Amino acid sequence: MTVLYFDCFSGASGDMILGALIDAGADAGAVRRAITALPIEDVGMETSEVVRRGLRANAVTIRIPDHAEHRGFLEIVSMLEGADLPPRVRARALRMFEILATAEARVHGTDVDSVHFHEVGALDAIADVVGAAVAIEHFDPATIACSPIPLGSGSVETDHGTLPVPAPAVTEILKGALIVGGGEREVTTPTGAAILMAITDRFGEPPPMTLHATGYGAGSADLSVPNVLRVLVGEEASAELAAHILVETNIDDMTPELIPHVIDQLLRAGAQDAWSTPILMKKGRPAFKISAIVDHASRERVVDLLYRETTTFGVRASKIEKDELFREWIEVDVEGHAVRVKVAHRGPEVVTTSPEYEDASRAAMATGMPLKDVYQRAEAAARRKLRV
Fold first, then answer.
1. Dihedral of alpha carbons 189, 190, 195, 200, sign
2. Which residue segments constitute the domains of the chain, with CATH numbers given?
């Protein structure tokens, strides 16, 4: 079964999503035919290859008439229902605009049927939504996942005047999504947010898959990072390949001072985690249990290392379930010293922060502060930076 993963490291807009899907293999001809099937005169789509900060990407340009006007939600619904579109494409497109309309109504204090779109209701946004729905249908994915979505910064000029970034409609749309700060300007648009919220099954890291294709969709901004959105297309990994495996062995005849070296080598060999536990074996002999969590790809390397680096005569392996929080690193300043802090999210909520020991230790040595105080200051600075 096909899996799609949207990697929004530089934000998301309708044209970026559509460009990435076409670049990954969606039928550009089918997208173009669907867009021209809309009851809009002189609308069309062009694609071109561009480079954004050294990264090649596909740029989509929607060609619309100069006299295009804004559209109301009910008018857009009528337009989509009357167009010659496949049923599932029409349903996805209507869902995307329903999400947009609900957000706009909430932000402006009106009801959905009375919403008149401005930027998001322009004809190019309608074409982006329909095109994205067609491109998704091309892959017919069983699962769609999405990375955390950056919110951007600064302000943006709209028909309602100057608004803060993220625009109010964007934060309304992204309720329930995994979001992160960052971005030099408006990097996630209402159209891009609505498309992702309408199709995404879950947010976080990529699901286990056999990767088949990668597509890059270009945005129009000139940023310090490539202004592109990446989509990964793959085949869902089988439960066997996706499973986590616990590998363990008991050792009672090896000097304990060698254990830290074994743990370090296990991590270098690909173990996701490794540790030792003091235990008592038969006849009351003190011993150590060495444990490692691995995936299918690193299992044999880890087992080989245990035989090579320890005195064991055998290991045991069992499948386990693993749940983990999405993590990111941010950098804060403590008395003029950079300290990285690991931040863990569960959904949109920050649930824990943890300073990097080596950074905090260097800051403590340089300033003469107690290490515990460096930790406290780093965590407080991280939470201020995240606004939590």
1. positive
2. 2-236 (no CATH), 243-320 (3.30.70.1380), 326-386 (3.10.20.300)
Place of tokens 């295009």: 68
What span, in angstroms and rounded, lies between the C-alpha atoms of 98 and 355? 42
> pLDDT tens digits, residue range 337-367?
999 999 888 766 788 999 999 999 999 999 9
Characterize 65-93 residue by residue with b for buried, 16 or more Cβ atoms within 10 angstroms of its Cβ, and e for exposed: eeeeeebebeebbebbeebebeeebbebb
Give the three-state DSSP class for 125. helix
The secondary structure of 244-296 as a DSSP string is: EEEEEEEESSS-GGGHHHHHHHHHHTT-SEEEEEEEE-GGG-EEEEEEEEE-T
Strands (E), the chain: 2-7, 44-52, 55-63, 143-146, 149-150, 155-158, 161-164, 179-180, 202-203, 209-218, 228-236, 244-251, 273-280, 286-294, 316-320, 326-334, 337-346, 349-355
- Residue 121 has what DSSP assignment? G
DSSP letter, residue 147: P
Dihedral sign computed on CA atoms, order 356, 358, 361, 366: negative
Q: Is the torsion defined by CA of 329, 8, 347, 170 positive or negative?
A: positive
* Distance separating alpha carbons of residues 215 and 231, to the nearest angstrom: 5
pLDDT tens for 165-222 read 888 889 999 998 999 887 778 899 999 999 999 999 999 888 888 899 999 999 988 8
pLDDT tens track for 236-260: 876 666 678 999 999 999 999 999 9
